[in-house]
Design goal:
- Belongs to the class-I pyridine nucleotide-disulfide oxidoreductase family.
- Keywords: FAD, Flavoprotein, NAD, Nucleotide-binding.
- It is a single chain.
- This protein is α/β, with parallel strands linked by helices and 470 residues long.
- Strands 1, 2, 3, 4, 5, 6 and 17 form a 7-stranded mixed beta sheet that branches.
- It folds into 3 domains: 132 residues, FAD/NAD(P)-binding domain, CATH 3.50.50; 118 residues, 3-Layer(bba) Sandwich (FAD/NAD(P)-binding domain), CATH 3.50.50; 118 residues, FAD/NAD-linked reductase, C-terminal dimerisation domain (Enolase-like, domain 1), CATH 3.30.390.30.
- The protein is 32% helix and 25% strand.
- The structure holds flavin-adenine dinucleotide and nicotinamide-adenine-dinucleotide.
- The site of flavin-adenine dinucleotide has 34 residues, from helix 1, strand 2, helix 2, helix 3 and helix 8.
Amino acid sequence: MKKLQADVVVIGGGTAGMGAFRNARLHTENVYLIESHVFGTTCARVGCMPSKLLIAAAEARHHALHTDPFGVHLDKSSIQVNGEEVMNRVKSERDRFVGFVLEDVNEWDENRRIMGAAKFIDDHTIQIDDHTQIRADRIVIATGSRPVILPEWEKLGDKLIVNDDVFSWSTLPESVAVFGSGVIGLELGQALHRLGVKVTVFGRDGSLGGISDPVVLQQATEIFAEEFPFYLRSTSEARLNADGKVEIKWAQDDETGIFVADYLLAAIGRTPNVDNLGLENIKIDTDKRGVPIANPETMQTSIPHIFIAGDASNQLPLLHEAADQGKIAGENAGKFPNISKGLRRSMIGVVFTNPQIMSVGARFATLKNQYGDDFDDKVAIGEVSFRNQGRSRVMLVNKGHMRVYADKQSGKFLGAEMAGPAAEHIAHLLAWAHQMEMTVPKMLDMPFYHPVIEEGLRTALRDVASKLSK
Ligand SMILES: Cc1cc2nc3c(=O)[nH]c(=O)nc-3n(C[C@H](O)[C@H](O)[C@H](O)COP(=O)(O)OP(=O)(O)OC[C@H]3O[C@@H](n4cnc5c(N)ncnc54)[C@H](O)[C@@H]3O)c2cc1C
Ligand SMILES: NC(=O)c1ccc[n+]([C@@H]2O[C@H](COP(=O)([O-])OP(=O)(O)OC[C@H]3O[C@@H](n4cnc5c(N)ncnc54)[C@H](O)[C@@H]3O)[C@@H](O)[C@H]2O)c1
């Protein structure tokens, strides 16, 4: 057994871990980075990037099939999807992104990167597989997350898949049953549907793409239901049939049915990778899911020399959050005990469906919780439907709804939720306004060009402005 001594050990070599390693090394050279699987990050290998590549291919087919209303007619039978070519592009571009990450990793001293699964022996000692033990002064946990799998699905063998499997396909399958109508289920489910794969999405509690505003949720549900079958409040049973296919027997309200598919794609949420870390060997405060609780401004846990970052922290499992948290945790581990608060930005979330979904600042559900019985008195809500929004109609993307929230008394912009056109861009405008702590009247003083989809945002802002206390 190799024994090492370190100032800082970072567990997990994804986005958060790489950021932590880089930033800890600004303060000390004696830092180790431990990775149990492969370098390259979840985002680049099996997350953000390959999913957006698949979506881009799906959009190309969708646009080709929907030119008629513009008076532009294509022979629909000539629009063919070559599954192998789709997957080749997804994988080759993905490999390019992964390559850039690996270039960074390979620049780091090989002796400072250790492959193997790390586990706490005590709150200063990390065991890596059975080959290395490191005594560390400070430790950063950046072990990411993994998809949740229901135990009853295990009998499906290799017909049960997760996002990682989709991005290693050599061609597209004929049919997929998607479980989970959250962000991943909706992005991948719609993309596969638009590529001609027979898809049905099964949800459980009526939620969709993480939307918490009931009005936006209702509108979004209607829009997505027009496009492909989904059952958002279903119960179901999955089994392998005699042909070796996945058979889903489902029920929702008075409706029942059977959907037979090549695969069951599990997208019912992700769980932080903290359960196999030996946390039982250290006395660390955890939440009810067993995740170490950390101060979001310092990423410090209840054990002062242990920090946590990225999806492992269960705070906001998004790429830019992992990068920010990794930087903060690494820097603080590097300069411990002189830790400081890092930059925390306004919340921004985008789902790359069509229409896109976004949320900024405080979501509807957060405000409801925060204001409780005072919600109606204290929070003003403005809204816009994109059905008749000028530029959206021009482009034939006039589907969706946005609601913006403001503090009635001060006029301060609090947050927004939306499903609709150009949501990724509107989300940025709003997140910047939120972080600048702007009031709605100040936001309305900003320029709006004509004709643009952002004029829809102005309509919602005018609506909320009219409801502020005078
Ligand atoms: C399909 C999909 C699409 C997504 N799309 C987006 C998007 O569009 N935009 C967005 O913002 N976010 C998106 N995300 C979320 C984003 O990918 C994650 O929030 C982000 O990658 C998390 O980074 P991380 O560093 O915490 O984890 P990871 O990158 O997963 O890194 C964790 C690392 O820790 C290693 N590890 C685990 N346990 C141990 C151990 N015991 N010892 C040593 N190493 C260990 C793992 O092997 C892994 O390499 C998506 C996620 C998925 C799955
Ligand atoms: N565009 C993006 O930024 C992006 C894209 C993909 C993933 N992500 C990140 O990854 C995280 C995980 O995504 P996810 O989609 O796996 O989780 P999620 O939490 O977004 O959605 C899970 C969904 O599964 C449903 N569900 C739970 N149990 C179920 C069951 N037994 N049967 C059917 N449905 C069930 C839930 O009601 C929920 O709607 C997201 O929260 C997000 O932070 C982000």
